[in-house]
Amino acid sequence: MDDPAVKGSSELVLRADQILRDVDIMQNPYFVRLDSGHMSRAEFCNSQRQFYIAVDFFSRPRSALLMQMKCPQRRLAILANVVEEHGNFQPAAFHEATFRQFLEALGDESAGDSCVMRAPVHAFNSTIMSACTTDELQIGIACLGIIEYAFADISTFIGRAVVERDW
Asked: pTM (2 decimals)?
């Protein structure tokens, strides 16, 4: 039996894959520099402090999507993801907390405490919040969805680079 939801999911994944191929995110100068070994540990840690700010913020636009959704049943998947971002109610497992542990493992003493948000991260956070509060619901969902989907490969890439460099 052909399930329309599964077919729609498959088409969505194929479209997301095409978008990410078109953008070619792994050819971004940041990833090229990290991959080539030309990025110092200090530069990497500095970049990850900025990423920490984005990670800490990321559940807020998702929470804003909940306000946009009229049907309570449709909110459940987003709500489950917000709860998961918050470590299923275990503070030590919040994404913010686990990323802070990552920074500490890299040797970052401040681990995000005194990090000043730079313009690119501010623009990123503002854009996704705007997409989730003022655009059509589908825009916000698509925006957060493609970020999450891309991050699966990005986090693998970064993790491999950290291990290869014994950072």
From this structure: 0.83
